[in-house]
Specification:
By secondary structure, this protein is an all-beta fold. It has no helices and six strands. Helix content is 0%, strand content 45%. A hairpin with a 2-residue loop joins strand 3 and strand 4.
Length: 117
């Protein structure tokens, strides 16, 4: 058995400004703001190995618990780089599964799977 604790922290700084100033639109004006997400957790793996002649069978269950505060998407941050989300074995056990920087994967979650590549 192997237990791997982890801590992940991320801070993003944004600067937004209004590109149009029409009277019928509520222009937000210029703004500089930040957001922070801290994630802590642990990954547990337990490989089972069986040899049968010249074959080796490996089954490696993995369980991961990740804890972070729930963060709502700020409406001032446009979703430009996380529109096409691919959920597969390469990002299942990542602290943040979103491919870009616009959306954060926050809250409490339990990920389980098999550790085969």
């Amino acid at each position: 058995m192997r237990l791997d604790p982890f801590i992940d922290a991320r801070t993003d700084l944004f600067q937004a400004w209004a590109t149009c100033n029409r009277s019928h639109l509520a222009a937000p004006g210029n703004a500089t703001f930040a957001r922070t997400l801290e994630t802590a957790g642990a990954t547990l793996t337990w490989p089972f190995v069986k040899r049968s002649g010249n074959r080796t069978i490996v089954l490696e269950p993995i369980a991961q618990l990740a804890l972070s505060p729930t963060i709502r998407q700020d409406p001032r941050i446009p979703n430009e780089d996380s529109i096409d989300f691919e959920f597969d074995q390469t990002n299942l056990f990542q602290p943040n599964k979103s491919p870009g920087f616009d959306i954060l994967d926050s809250g409490q979650r339990l990920n389980v799977g098999d550790g085969r590549p």
